[in-house]
Design brief:
about 375 residues; nine-stranded mixed β-sheet; seven-stranded antiparallel β-sheet; 1 helix; 25 strands
Length: about 375
């Protein structure tokens, strides 16, 4: 059997209709693909949207420093389980807050967060994943990406001013610390632990009970730089082995920033929790360098400490009594000549605190009396 194939002829009108239909179908498929693509992008955008950070309470704008803290709080919309807040305060650099213990603030079930912070001119909050580890200080905030899910910045408040505590002693103004510190452990500071008596002497007190001690610190409000520092201090021989009385210079930012010089030299009265140890030492930071720590015994009675800080040298001398005569016999003396700090933004400080890392913990209250502080260029 033979099948004969005939040629199909399409009229011009049918050909035109076919082309129109094909074109219409192509356009429909194109529109459908475009809509599907847009829907996919929208779904992806919704699934990967970043949380939003809102501030509901902002501390006052202030240059920053160690003595005052305030509360910052807000809320986060869209945070996922396990994400946390890190707060930053800007002084000369950005500080991860609150600097004592953990820097991570939990996001509560109602999306709110709240934490104390040291003061700054600006504040920031970042939503971060559990594995994020912030730098203690940095010139810039962490950028969004990776474990940093969202970042928001707000200027310090202008409506109120921070409550700075101050005291007058030996003709100088001193800031009295009111914020906690991690120097020696997690220590709380109470401004009522520093005062001057009717004779003009400064008293620093370590008060409370085991596990609930409060410390004292005073900080000069300005930098003095090179010169002679002289302090007359009453009997320190009965100080609890875990108590520390420190007289020293320190830069506000330098102590924690790796690229900064802390500009620190110290006279420290303490046995560091070891009752059998010597009760005093001279230190130039970093203290872990062997020749930067010199230990000695501070005897009972009034002692006068002299520090002559010059370019390339720090000479520290301790003598008995309160006189300034050059013929006094030194109890201890040392000259640091290597790695001597240069002046900058450091301020002189006196600190009485609880050393919590020694073999014996603090057992009793302590009080130090400084009769005079003198400075000569």
């Amino acid at each position: 059997m033979v099948y004969q194939l005939s040629t199909l002829r399409v009229s011009p009108s049918h050909e035109k209709s076919s082309r129109t239909l094909a074109h219409a179908l192509a356009e429909a498929f194109t529109r459908r693909n475009a809509l599907c693509g847009a829907a996919a992008l929208l779904l992806n955008a919704c699934s990967s949207s970043h949380p939003t950070i809102e501030f509901t309470r902002v501390p006052p704008a202030d240059k920053g420093g160690p003595d005052v803290m305030d509360i910052i709080e807000g809320r986060v919309k869209g945070a996922k389980p396990g994400q946390r807040i890190v707060v930053f305060a800007r002084g000369e650099v950005w500080w991860a807050e609150p600097r004592l213990g953990s820097v991570f603030t939990p996001i509560q079930a109602d999306s709110t967060w709240k934490t104390p912070t040291h003061l700054g001119t600006e504040y920031a909050a970042a939503v971060v994943e559990a594995g994020f580890q912030p730098q203690f200080t940095a010139n810039a905030l962490p950028k969004q990406g990776g474990p940093v899910v969202a970042v928001a910045v707000v200027p310090g408040g202008r409506a109120s001013r921070p409550m700075h505590h101050s005291i007058q002693f030996s003709g100088y103004e001193w800031t009295v610390r009111a914020a906690p510190s991690d120097r020696g452990g997690n220590n709380a500071y109470d401004p009522s632990n520093a005062w001057t008596d009717a004779g003009g002497a400064l008293h620093l007190r370590l008060a409370g009970e085991p596990g609930r001690w409060t410390c004292a610190q005073v900080i000069l409000t300005r930098s003095l730089g090179y010169g002679t520092y002289r302090l007359v201090v009453r009997d320190v021989s009965g100080l609890d082995p875990a108590a520390v009385f420190a007289m020293y210079t320190l830069s506000d930012a330098g102590a924690a920033a790796a690229d900064r010089n802390p500009r620190e030299w110290d006279i420290e009265i303490s046995r560091w929790g070891d009752p059998s140890g010597k009760n005093a030492r001279y230190v130039q930071q970093p203290s872990y360098v062997g020749q930067n720590t010199v230990r000695f015994v501070a005897p009972p009675g009034v002692l006068t400490h002299h520090v002559r800080w010059e370019s390339g040298t720090v000479r520290i001398t301790t003598v008995r009594g309160s006189g300034a005569g050059s013929g006094q016999v030194a109890v201890a003396e040392h000259v640091f000549t290597s790695g001597v700090p240069v002046p900058g933004d450091e301020k002189f400080r006196m600190n009485l605190y609880d050393f919590q890392r020694g073999p014996q913990l603090l057992r009793q209250n302590a009080e130090i009396v400084i009769e005079r502080f003198e400075y000569l260029p």
